[in-house]
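Hey, quick one: can you model this chain's 3D structure?
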Amino acid sequence: MILDLKRVNELDSTGARILLQINESLRAQGGNLLLSYPHDNALVSSVLRDLGVAGALGEGGLFPDTDSALESAEDRVLLAEGGEEALGAEVVVERLSVLEGLSETECAVVRALLVRRAFHAGRP
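Sure thing. Here's the predicted structure for all 124 residues.
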């Protein structure tokens, strides 16, 4: 779960406790709580730090922007599904979970619409 804090102006102790509870619940289910823009507002940042939210999430749970948090979440899913090699490997179309339940004919329609694109690290 990614929570974007960019437009959060204030966070109190109740909000911090809720974030800690969400984090605990997600971890019990094998998930993670990720926060983006946690340091954009000094008040929010200090509450996250002082009430233990930042510590509970660790450096791997705090991101300067939502894109970074999303990239980390995607990497975690890939690692869980296929290990280290999955981060660099191409996923075979037939293994995409979004195609589950579709007939071969329907999968062929989707496959025909897909376009292969290569993206290099650090480039838009």
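One thing worth noting: The chain has one domain: 2-88.
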